[in-house]
Fold this protein.
Amino acid sequence: MKKITLLVLAIFSITLFSFQDGPKKGMDKETRKKAQKELAAYNKENVIPVILENRKEFETKLSSDEKKELVSLRVKMKALGEQKKASKKGKTKGEAPTEEQKEARAALQKEMRQIMTSAWAIVDNHEADLKAIKESNKANEEKWKEDIKAIMMKYKPENAEKGKGKKHGHKMKQNPMGPNKDVMFVMMDPSQSIDEIAENMEKMAKKRHGQHGKKGKSKGHASPDQEND
């Protein structure tokens, strides 16, 4: 399900892998890999530690009941991911889902909505705390944007400088989760290490890139499973 896939990515105000369209926009595969590697290293060294520290600070604002609730919600979310993965086993590529599979997927989506509704209740209880964290991070976010923009420019295809910037350039995507950013920050597990978060981000980014490639081959139309990843 999409919210599961984006859980780790959504804690950032910037997108880690901005080069997933590289080969189609003038960037060769090796150059794209180098760009991704440098972006990942930058995020691990500069962004993740700050966000993780923010989340640990936020943990002190939660009541004991809220902390227990979030632990429970994370367990449920992980279980949903495992159920979805298990449901794909034995499924033939391109095969239309059966009615039973559709019902099972609908049940998973309903449970996800219930999880997110509970998480949003905690967000609503701490609007002031979350706003304070955002305000304290404004300078950091501006620096991250500028630094990542500089990294991206290093790998920008030469033909993008010749009046083809709009077609071949790469714009940094901000706030990938939009209005869901706060709830995903709240759902983040502050007990994770920097290495664990970085590893999860890389796995998710690679998965997203793989799905993007599949969509490109199918003229941009995602399958139902891809849409719900």
Remarks:
- Residues 2-62+131-223 form one domain.
- The CA atoms of residues 149 and 207 lie 23 Å apart.
- Residues 1-24, 163-177, 216-229 have pLDDT under 50 and may be disordered.
- The radius of gyration is 19 Å.
